[in-house]
Amino acid sequence: MKVTFRVDASSEIGTGHISRCLNLAYELKRRGAKCNFISQDMPEYFISQIKSQGHSHYSLRAANHFPAFNKDPIGLSCPAESQLADAQKTLNLIADDIQDWIVVDHYSLDINWELRVKCSSKRLMVIDDMANRQHACELLLDQNMQDKKQSRYREKVGQNCKTLLGPKFALLRSEFSELHKVALERSGQIHRILIFFGGVDSKNHTIEAMNALINLRIEVSVDVVIGLQHPFIDDVKKLCSQHAFSLHIQTKRMAELILQSDLCIGSGGVVTWERCCLGLPSLTYAIAENQEEVVRVAALNGLIYAPNPTDFLGDSIELHLRVLLENQNILKLISSNGINAVDGNGAKRVAQAMGVSPLKLRQALETDCESIFEWRNHPDVNKFSKNQKRIDYVDHFNWFNSVIASDRTFLLIGASQAESIGVIRFDVDEFKAYISIYVVPGVEHFGAGTDLLMAAEEWLKEQRPEVTLLRAEVLRENMRSQHFFSKNGYQALPLNFEKKV
Q: N or C: which end of the chain has fewer CB within 10 A?
């Protein structure tokens, strides 16, 4: 699968767009996709990062000479003429290499750009959180927590557009999902504080937060994180040296620092969901207009502590730190709410929504007979089968050999690297195929059933293109399977589920 990202990063618009796109690209590449990045503005550090992860990068600025986009980070679309020029240059870079997906994460681009580039892509995905312009896409992601999220994009996208809404889809780096498993609810005591106001922090809120801690004279360890593009990097270095604060510049240890801290002082944005994922309470400030609604709603849901906006950030930090130091239960509650709301698997969910499975399928061989016998008789599989009696090996052996010899029944095994993940069977009847599926008992693979089903549907399209309807029979009491087929696009019928392909 081929995926092209159109995304920019700069001191004006920040680095959040490219960060979340890189996180998604990492997961897509892990699943076998080839990813390209196209940008007009991109710091050299991120270009190096893109290439070091095995992706390609192409510069629009180097390839042509039209003016840069509106630098306003709150998301005012550029004039259609500028968008169409950008779209044409993007198409020139793609050339005749039709993409499976084009992913655009850019506040200045809207339906004008999207309609122009759709000819070079089978599908288009938009990453947005402003809901302030029209889109022509098959998939839209807004990973933030919003009021009225179901109606937020109703008038902004077409009827056939699938929307992925909320922090369960937050595009975090892979280590967050792993560390989430060991993250503990904080006690409310504050011994270590993390300061982070984004990679750029053009207004130097980092210094304000540092000075607030210095004025409070509390005995805590302090970690300060800034990016290479921070405009006041020398001032931050000097103050950290004077007060024995630990400084981390463009660190790759953010997840580790979050896990070790008791409180964060920082901005909204993607990092909000990183902190929630690892249970770190945060004193959060909206430092850009596009963060204000996100911060407000997250605070209302008890995921962060967010004071009212103020021009005197340092005074506000001092005041509210005193409040939090005396109210440990607030921090405990925020920590618990965050862990429960964000599990770090957002990139995996989005990759699944894009139809990219990491599993490889193969038809069952004679040597698989015994393994399938053991899996099928396992209690976790057997309890959801139509025949819940333990199957005799002789009966299984005869059935298995008749299946692998059939030209109308296909028994497939899905695997990730050397590990078998699940089994799927198609019984083909002219244009219909009846489907049976289960995950190998004991497998720890997020979304294993969905990944297996996606891979199997693609296999069937290639091997039996005459099949246009899939049908699954599900026991009435098997609510788990009913939910599984529903979320994967199957329509519920009185006695089964079916899906047109």
A: C
